Amino acid sequence: MKKKLLKRSKLKHWLILEELKNRIVEDQGNAAKLMCEYLSSAICIGDWDEMPWLDVAKDFVLVASLNTPKGQYPIFNQPKEQDISRVRYNNWLWFMWANVMMTQYGWDLEYVSNLDIDDAISLIQEIQISTQDEREWEWVLSEKSVGYDERTKKSKFVPYDKPKWMQKPKEQVVPRKIKIDPKMLPSGLILRWSDDNVKH
Fold first, then answer.
1. What is the chain's alpha carbon radius of gyration, rounded to the nearest angstrom?
2. Which of 68, 64, 62, 65 lies closest to 3 in space, CA to CA?
3. The pLDDT value given to residue 176
4. How far, in Å, are 5, 43, 45, 64, 165 from residue 40 at the CA level?
5. Is the distance from CB of 64 to CB of 18 less than 8 angstroms?
6. Angle between helices 117-140 and 11-26 (to 10 degrees)
7. Nearest alpha carbon to residue 22 among 122, 101, 125, 93
8. Which of 5, 23, 117, 158 has the smallest number of Cβ neighbours within 10 A?
9. Mapping DSSP to helix (H, G, I), strand (E, B) and coil, where does residue 192 land?
10. CA-closest candidate to residue 17, choices 140, 117, 98, 142
């Protein structure tokens, strides 16, 4: 497949392709069939079922790479949790995103479907952050934000839980250097790997 014949997807098409990619990971026994379905949806040409498997795999990687978001988004660092309450159906991911953006911004379905992938991800991320800020403020005003510390016998603030991708990364602890007492060092000549007289 020639790369110049391909075009980067807009939001709706990208979300449909992402849903297919997730199915490939979850159902590896049907990976070949799902890859053909992915390519048919992405390009709408070609009898993928009749092509050699290696060609299908190469084209899949090419199309998937083209439709990979260009930026690094913290929202994708959130561990995936299986939501058993959500009913999953064809293209549910697209309709979920569309519902969020239409509710937030008042856009129609067609406008949302043609958004740039990276713009859409950034907006969804900002919507999530704004929603989190509102929930934290409501939490501060409620009695739930005040707890009791058994150790100090005083009340304490109980923060509202943040999604992992919104949390500040934990600082890595640098090991403290400890000086060894000369009396504890071995006696005699010490050879190091960097010494010229050590034969490898």
1. 27
2. 62
3. 76
4. 14, 5, 6, 13, 34
5. no
6. 80
7. 93
8. 5
9. coil
10. 117
CA–CA gap between residue 26 and residue 124 (Å, rounded): 25
The DSSP secondary-structure symbol of 103 reads H
Between vectors from CA 82 to CA 79 and to CA 86, what angle results, nearest 5°?
130
Q: Look at residues 135, 131, 105 and name the one whose alpha carbon lies nearest to residue 120.
A: 105
For residue 10 the two structure tokens come to 């807009």
* SS3 category, 164: helix
Helix, strand, coil percentages, rounded to 5, for the chain: 55, 5, 40
Contact 1, 59 (CB under 8 A): yes
Identify whether the C-beta of residue 41 lies closer than 8 Å to the C-beta of residue 17. yes
The residues near 94 (Cβ < 8 Å, ≥ 6 apart) are 11, 12, 15, 16, 19, 113
Q: How long, in residues, is the chain?
A: 200
The pTM of this model reads 0.62
Closest to 76 (Cα-Cα) out of 12, 7, 32, 122 = 122
Calpha distance 162→159 (Å, rounded):
9
pLDDT digits 0-9 by tens, 160-177: 888 887 887 777 777 777
Tokens of 84: 């058993």
pLDDT of residue 104 exceeding 50: yes
Rounded to 5 degrees, φ, ψ at 104 are -75, -45
What pLDDT was estimated at residue 54? 84
